[in-house]
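Hypothesis: this fold can be encoded by more than one sequence.
Test: take the structure tokens below, design a sequence, compare later.
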């Protein structure tokens, strides 16, 4: 199967519900994707949104406590920020800006190598 077709099939098989984490793949990807309420206030910074999510995450391995890297372009109008951590198989998290200007986690995986492309 062509990689693009495989990715499209994987994404189509992923059922996303408002604010509920769901498995996003049938090929062993342990990632979780979310449709957060972008009408909510959210956190002040992307890393604060990550902290909130880490205190309530479900279905993933125990998250690392430190060494998170915010991959921020520095654009004050950015609507999404990536946060990574090399611990274990690697964590990959995207944080989205809410309608109110805050930040919430929109996708996450504790298997960055195997799942990050499926969460984009």
């Amino acid at each position: 199967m062509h990689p693009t077709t495989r990715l499209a099939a994987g994404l189509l098989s992923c059922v996303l519900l408002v604010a509920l984490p769901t498995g996003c793949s049938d090929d062993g990807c342990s990632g979780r994707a979310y449709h957060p309420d972008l009408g909510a206030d959210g956190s002040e910074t992307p890393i604060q949104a990550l902290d909130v999510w880490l205190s309530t995450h479900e279905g993933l391995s125990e998250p690392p406590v430190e060494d998170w890297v915010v991959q921020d372009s520095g654009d004050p109008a950015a609507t999404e920020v990536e946060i990574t951590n090399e611990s274990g198989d690697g964590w990959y998290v995207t944080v989205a800006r809410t309608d109110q200007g805050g930040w919430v986690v929109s996708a996450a995986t504790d298997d960055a190598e195997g799942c990050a492309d499926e969460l984009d």
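The two ends are 20 Å apart (CA to CA). Residues 1-26 have pLDDT under 50 and may be disordered.
Hypothesis status: open.
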